[in-house]
């Protein structure tokens, strides 16, 4: 998919990989046009970030995408976590991305349901269990090409799940996707908060506006006695939001059903079950909708998961 030389070709007239500067410039301009076209009909682009791994970023991305789709919006979900793509597994989707003969070779995303389109960089890989060892320029080029190749159509929201930290993937999303906004997910304990400050500073450096901070795994409601135990403490995410003068979007408690449902491919937070976690998540969703309101495009919704083959049909 990406050129073997990545984007590191020198300024010499003919680069190491044998292409001329002019040919590279033309290819880059063509890619830039394709990116503009691919993203042109998307109202809100949201990069879900975390300073630290395992804080629930993919869980929040998937639940956010599903929750907005359930509210009648057209939503896209893009997983650019090259090293640990989890979105496909959390939604229990199968299938592969193929260029469409009728759409000028562009790649249509897979449909989870009528309102939710999903793509993962994982779909581009032949062997999904193979570890990927790519250097920065190649990753950046792969993500740019991935965005350029997609045919999203009209979307109210595009949710982008990036790997934790402030490495090549969030950087290439920030540089490739104009007007992308960030949501930062953290857990409440100090070690996570130290890393979240780096994410916030990263956004400032690359001029990405932050829509707000979500505190995940904030207290555990015991299913037996209904008492809350603050395993990772609570309130740290809100404190960091205050420190940086950012909106606090809400806190989601720990709930073992989130783990089980994530493993089974049936996301829990956006489900219709009533619990402290689903109620908290509904509040987070509302806060995001309030801050990033698109014009609502009324579309009928097939809530059941799609067949995943890309036809838009259901199981
Ligand atoms: N509020 C919660 N309560 C209980 N478990 C949770 C909660 N949020 C996420 N989890 C679980 O924590 C684990 C890590 O979540 P997830 O994969 O979403 O994190 P991540 O930040 O995307 O991780 P990575 O660093 O690998 O990208 C998963 O097993 C998930 O089900």
From TrEMBL:
Any GO molecular function: iron-sulfur cluster binding
Sorted UniProt keywords: ATP-binding, Hydrolase, Iron, Iron-sulfur, Metal-binding, Nucleotide-binding
Domain of life: Bacteria
Binding site for ATP: 51-58
Gene3D superfamilies according to UniProt: P-loop containing nucleotide triphosphate hydrolases
InterPro entries named in the record: Mrp-like_CS, Mrp/NBP35_ATP-bd, P-loop_NTPase, YlxH/NBP35
One Pfam family per UniProt: ParA
GO biological process, one term: iron-sulfur cluster assembly
GO CC annotations, alphabetized: cytosol
Chain's role: Binds and transfers iron-sulfur (Fe-S) clusters to target apoproteins. Can hydrolyze ATP.
Subunit architecture: Homodimer.
UniProt similarity note: Belongs to the Mrp/NBP35 ATP-binding proteins family.
Protein name, per record: Iron-sulfur cluster carrier protein
Source organism of this protein record: Desulfoprunum benzoelyticum
